[in-house]
Amino acid sequence: MKMFEQEKIPLAVVGATGLVGQKAIAMIDHHPEFYVAEIAASDQRAGQTFEESVCWREPGDIPKSVCTLKLKPIKEVNNRYVISALPASVAQEVEPALASQGSFVFTNASAFRMHQDVPILIPEINIDHLSLLERQKTPGKIITNSNCMVAFIALALEPLMELGAIEHVSVVTMQAISGAGYPSIDSIDIMGNIIPHIAGEEEKIITETLKILGTQTQPASFGITVHVHRVPILHGHTVALHIHFASSVNMHDINDIYLSRNQSWPGLYRLYHEVARPQPARDIGPYDQSVHIGRIKQGARDNIIGLIAMGNNLARGAAGASVRNMEATLQYNSSRENRV
Ligand code: NAP
Question: What is the pTM of this model?
Answer without folding.
Answer: 0.96
